[in-house]
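Hey forum,

I'm writing up a methods section and want to include a predicted complex as supplementary material. The small molecule is pyridoxal-5'-phosphate. I've pasted the protein sequence and the SMILES. Can someone with a working setup run it? I'll credit the forum in the acknowledgements.
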Amino acid sequence: MKNQKNKHFETEAVRIQTDRTKFSEHSTPLYLTSGFVFEDSEEMRAAFAEEKQRDLYSRYSNPNTSEFITKMCALEGAEDGFAFATGMAAVYSTFAALLNAGDHIVSCRSVFGATHALFTKYFPKWNINTTYFTTTEEEKLEELIQPNTKLIYVETPTNPGVDVLDLEKISKVAKKHGILFVVDNCFATPYLQNPIKFGADLVIHSATKLIDGQGRVLGGVTVGTADLIREIYLFSRVTGPAMSPFNAWVLSKSLETLAVRADRHCENALKLAEFLEIHSKVNWVKYPFLPSHPRYEVAKKQMKLGGSIVAFEVKGGVDAGKKFFDSIEMCSLSANLGDTRTIVTHPASTTHSKLAAEDKEAVGITDGMVRCSVGLEYVEDIIKDVDQALTGI
Ligand SMILES: *Cc1c(COP(=O)(O)O)cnc(C)c1O
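Reply by user p_vandermeer:
Happy to help. Structure tokens for the complex are below, copy them as they are.
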């Protein structure tokens, strides 16, 4: 693996590459192989004893997944990582590798739906319990720490409320109590935010979202300190959630264009947010880089740009929200995010419809709230579609 130790994100993302084969290919080939061969018994023994780093079996490692991991580590400023089949495989395996029965988690309330299900439905089976704090309770975080608290977990910006949590402040609390700090950095991507710089021990991504950015493959990755990744690697080697070489090959290529894509996503998102802020059919807009965002200063401190997600509330509640969706012409009604195509969702009638009223409030969802994952279409076309749908309410 050639790491040229370039300082800049764009150069690292483009240039880090696994060693070329005898064919001197420019683009990394796809290594669709389940296993790797050995010259003799001694070589095989040494490989199994981990005396030499080499590929052995693709459940453990593969040149394509290693290339993707090396790139992600460079982009996040991490020592090591492991790549998973999906974002949820990364989330689950990270917890499962590091936690013991009886451990306690402190997490922000606004977490991805499946992560919430792990915390509330599955982890309690192993006596691992979670205490939530809402974004407005960040100051009270320390009071939630118990003697058995093993880690603090956050997502920022949050889904779907686009709230922002202060990574530096939270990491200080974690350090003070000697507990792990784990960040799901999916909404920001490594281009916009590097939680390790602010004290995180581990960073998780669903690569399915902006890292692929084109709605093609699923993937996940956890990066961080070498000792923690070693635990996660040993667990994953046995349990088998590894990313496929094909997906790693796609995602390594996707990383080469992440910076230019993210720049345009963010530029379009900010323009849409500014347009919505003065629209007569809109009650409020939330976007981290709008000065009206309650945590604007924190967002400016820890993020390079505001991200691709804009949340806003249409006037008129659930009915107006549904009408807005039925009037949308170009933007897609879909559950994904971070795609080249602009996607709108109505959490109150879809993804979060089963939540009790107070839970909706805790995660920042109101009846007329719309989440827009702003894509790479010409921005005036996105604005025109949203505007005509708002006019139709
Ligand atoms: C989508 C998502 C996940 C899960 O990722 P999958 O690749 O769908 O398994 C986890 N966290 C966040 C914040 C997400 O948006």
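Some notes you might quote in the supplement: Residues 258-391 form a domain with the Aspartate Aminotransferase, domain 1 fold (CATH 3.90.1150.10). The CA atoms of residues 82 and 233 lie 6 Å apart.
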